[in-house]
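TL;DR need structure tokens for one chain.
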Amino acid sequence: MSIARGHLHMTLDQEDLENRLRAAPADWEARLALVEWHVFQGDKASARKVVRESPDEGPLPSDVQFRIHTLLTRPVREAEKPGEEGKSPGNSTASASDRMETQDKGEPHAGSPNSRPPAPKTEAPEPPTTVAPSPEDEATKEHSRLSLENKESLEWARSRQKKRRLRGEKVCDLPEDLDHTDARAPIKAFRAAVPDTPAHLAPAPLVRPKKTDHAVIRARSGPLEIPEPSEDDLLLSEMPPIDRPAGTAEKIGAFTLAMIVHAAIVVALSFVVIALPIIQPPQLVVNTQSDRDQLIIDQKKLVKPTDKPMPSAAAPHEAFIISSTAPSNMTVPDFENKRTVDLVSPIAGLQIDGMGFSFNGKSGDTSDVNFFGIKSGGNRIVFIIDTAPGMLVDEKGGMFAYDKVKNEIGIMLNALNRGTSFNIILYQGARAASFREKPIPGLPSNIRQALDWMDPVNRTYEDLGLSGDYMANPVVLTDGVGPIKAAECLGYTKAIQAAMEMDANAIFCIAGGYETIRRQADEETRKKMRENPGTPGKVDPKEREAWQQAVDKTQVWLAKENAARAEKGLPPKVVLNFSQLVREVTGATPPRAVGGTPSPVKMPSIPPYTPEEIEQHLREISKAVVRRSPGSSEPSVHLVLFLGKGEDIGDQEEHFKRLTRQNHGKLKLLRGLEALKNVTGSQ
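>> reply
TL;DR here they are.
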């Protein structure tokens, strides 16, 4: 249990206290009273034994430790020492009741606050300038100090009882008429609160530490009594050490020492010399035999150089062959590092990617590309081609112009180095297909397969656009990377994103113009539209028949037009909007349905993606690819706009300029078939 500050100890007989401890070993109130009893008897060894017999294993409360330390370290007064005035150690002090009666009469006992130790018998010579105070002055000072201490004790006791009363505990009220100048005020307060308490159970005065009066100590004569050191094993709680904060001088000293150490290290490293062996380059020693008699001076005729035409991209590079027709007197040593021939596949064209034989060319070789006048290059190249029928209209040169585009792409493929990887992507609207899932080496077998795969697109008038045969290898985009969803992405935006995700470092795209990307409604709205489509109206049979006659008449006109074109050697006319052609030829308009009920679910008006959002989308895709492949660089995107004569794209040109500039590429505009001639060095 914890003994609170100012608690009154009880003066019981030794036998009663020992019986009480046997019944309750954890009763520290009785244990402290027994310790005090032994201390007053002058037997501190027994007092320490009582402390050691405590059943508590952990550290004692701070107030208990202070009380034990005060009792065991206090000196034994002359009146308390056993054997004085003919008394034995067993009866060296008066009984508890006698001592209580003596205290009631105002006579202080040895342990009370008013007790004063007797003057020592030996007298020491006093200093000539020091005058000892009279006993009356000391008594007056002592009485004033004790009165102040009793007043503070009574005020603290009243506040303590007030707090306990607020917590709902039972307390004894202290009389309000207590005189704090009386040294026995605490005892009288206890008896007034508990009148039936026997005299031997009355508490002793408060044990409070006294303030040291150095003037009184200096005035006393004789040696001072030094308390005996405590040899008891007390369970005292440890106080954690507190780190002393470093001062300004210590910080400056530590910083100076660190700078000196670093300077010494730098000076020491300056004397370190790294010796590297110098490798001598290999020398070629050739012994020649000069025969001046057989020396023949061959005269050469100077010929003015003439400009040679640049070979086309499909033409093979010129091979410079060095041959010798006469024996040489020069002796050339043999070389060990001969080129070895690696056969990748014994049979050409049987593998999926057509690796075939490979006698030269390293993986990752960079190839230069002249893409319709845009000169660039790379080692992982992807070509993107727009296959929409809008690329074949008469304003752009018809089907002949599109055949020219495919032929130029074939020339570029044949000019690639064998170590350069390539791929082809065809797109039309929301559909896109690729030749291979990833770029493959530019071997002849792979290039032949790519040309065969690309040749049928827009070859015949009856099968225009990206047909279903090409969708065997569709392009699949990664969703959630940019602001545009994968399901919404279309046109050149979708094709460029697919090329970036193939880790291409050079992308070449030819497109027919800007394509709007519309936002999709949320899934809940689309579901409601499917569940409540409304009812369609009815078309007047006469209007339907009239429209069908107009369509038949337009088809006859178109057949005659294409036949006349064929006689002139021109390609057939490509029609983008047949209803518009019917209105132009016959003047008829499509019939409208009458009646019916619209869907109760109104589709919200959602604005399409802006050109700036498309540019931001492709920038984020490019950065994501670089983060996915550490060490790689952002790809360059080059774009060619194939427009018709007189076609105005307005502000869309600025969009394409920003798109290519932000992706380290170039932009070029071509108008009509004439613009495609000799753009890559071919005719």
